[in-house]
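User: Structure tokens for both sequences below?

Assistant:
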Amino acid sequence: MTCQYQRGQRGRCDSSRRSACLATEVGIRLQGLQGVIERGLADLARCATKRWSNSRIYATIGDVKYESITTDTGLRELCDRLADVEIIAFDTEFVSEDTYRPELCLLQVAAGGKLTVVDCVAVNDVDPFWQRISTGKHRTVVHAGRQEVLFCLDSVEAWPVQLFDLQIAAGLVGLEYPAGYGSLVSRLLGQQLKKGETRTDWRKRPLSERQLQYALSDVVHLEPMYRQLTDKLERLDRTDWLEGEMKDWIDQVEVSYRRERWQRVSGMSGLGARSRAVVREVWRWREEQARRRNMPPKRVLRDDLIVEIAKRRSADVKQIRAIRGMDRGDLRNALPHLAAAVQRALDLDESQLPRGKHRHELPPQLNVLGQFLSSALGSICRRAELATGIVGNPSDVRELIAYRLGYFHDDDEPPALSVGWRAEVVGQQIDDLLAGRLSIRIVDPQSEQPLTFDPVNNRGESE
């Protein structure tokens, strides 16, 4: 053994110094060994809350205990256990900026009194989970769950059974709509959630303790809030309203999922039928490219470029190339395909051209009535313990007025405020206001409900 005095020096030390060197060296090594032992004990302490099996890890963050699943076997075992629970509440973390469809990264589940985090980056096949929540007799609970149920639809061509969206339920009992998750936790449970991690990249591993805590907080409160909202719905006798709203919402999401969404290209208002056909054909080409290359469609070709191509209505490659922004390398290679898409639109018969949505030509006074009665809508909703946002907006009020005054065609769908529970709660009162059977007056300018509604007698006087 070379002592510390010899390191970097020539020669050897004498015997007396050698003994001192030996004692020092042994002390240093013992200190190093003690450090190793202390670090090992600290690691054991940190792992004391973890128990490993072949497919699952049980862990604790703060006071929250959860199960972490990183294998296909672990996910299948979870799905087997979920077969017997009454309520499955879940949430997801995903990234949508770089792929054609959002990339699922994390799945958080609260069911049977247990919390589970599924690492969808590590698990190869998440389909068993979607199959489980789309079958059975359990209640599925989400908050603002559009993307969650789209994951399910995309995976197994089915929807989660007995879907209950807290955001919609909150609107039906008089809370705000659409209400954020943190806002509902505060109003229903009296707790304040920590903000952060909303812009995190959930694809990167390992996930930090803070990220996992954030993800778990998104699901741990779902069932308690579900129970409170269910009690409120039952008290107000609105359980059937929720079932109807969920069915309509699912139908709308599915139609949007399956329908070609070329009409959502920004900047196409005012285009003629032929130019709209060009937009449609170029949009279809863009969608196919985005799907094949697994990238966001607008990264393939921007909306403003599609509209500019449509305005020119030319299948000439040189004219398309002359558009500013079309000089990108991959777009230059795609010019013949773009020209072919334009030509398909130009070759269509007039009867095959897409037409814009029929709009009713309304007299100016209907806008004044709409603004006035929109204020009444808010008062009616507050009195009825309904969030105005879930009932309707000023456009819905104007449509109801136009419908009642005969500006709708026979084949037009009736406005939302004229059917179902909306007609019962809101539509009838607006009808009475239009007919002069009801009047509005200010009862207290400083009150949360400053307006009141008074019946009008046959002499036109408020009662």
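Moving on to the next sequence.
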Amino acid sequence: MSRWAVLFAFAAGCTAETRQADEAVAKSSFSANPSVPIPSHDPHRLRWVPVEGSTCIDGSSTGFIFSPGTSSDLCIYMEGGGASYDKSSDSFLSLAVPRGFGPGDACPDGHDGDGVCLGNVFSRHTDGLLNRNESRNPCRDAHIAYFGYCSGDVYAGNSSNGSNQHRGYRNVQLFLQRLAATLPKLNQVLCAGSSAGGIGCFVHQGNIRRTLTANAYHLLNISGSALMADAYVPLCTQRAWQSAWNLQSTIGNDCPEAVRDIERGQGVGNLVDCVMRQQEGHGRVGFVSTTQDGVMDLFRTLTASRCPTPAPFHEGVQELAGRIGGYAHGSSFVVKGKEHILNTPLQFSLVPSKSITSVSSGGVALMDWIQAMIKTPQAWRNVGP
């Protein structure tokens, strides 16, 4: 088995047996209506929140995990994973897309009859932004919403592609509605995500501001570097994404210039500048990547078509970091290496990944940089090799 096959096979964590065992909780408990507030429960306890109308790639219903905080801030964490958009991606990347995400997957230590987790671990993630005992974590006292990834479309899809349901865009819209019903007035909102989740935060920046009422809205893209300029992402790869996920009906809502005409330079590379312009005056935008991220390098080039070789990946990362960091409300953190930086690394020796708690660059720890983004923006700056 190749290193990539091992990586993506390991990342898929959900099983049919787990979902069957939790059907009673998924169907009962409390209302799944996205307009109904989440029932109150103890601060910092995790709870599975079903959301009516949300759909995983296999057609099963889904939801998210919610942990009440003691402050008026909200941290949304979008989980990462693989993608499905053509035959080539289905051979590798889609193996890292869980076919479902339910209460058993959300609560690995079990749950009571109302979906309140017995343990206090966010699915497979125990580090960084989801660790309330981490002193540098700007989310340690905040409300936390954990969006599990099961749509295979970097949270941007609105389509049926064969037997696959790509409804990630609608899922997030519904999750945000439920959070708005529960938390009508917030101070700061941070949307952070790793890999596919980092891209998802950029895709949904408009939905977040429209749906949630807050004083500030921040975005943190960790390892979602596939949003490079078009010179670094082959047009045939972009065509595959657009065709499989119907991006015109999702990304096109806020940033039509990112999907309008990829043949004429109006492709995904324009999404970042659109996001940066729309975020101005609303909050800060951070970007984190290694210079040679092997996972994202594969994602940008893996299609069933014969694509021309794009410009080198490391040049694309530097160009993207420079663009984001060139805005007054943006900053980038770039690390030399090939690892895929995640909130919690995959626990397998052949997987080239690192936790955000173990990364530093130029003498600056990544967790300190993230904390400064939210707590002390005057000390927040671009960091790179």
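User: Anything stand out in the second?

Assistant: The chain has one domain: 3-379.
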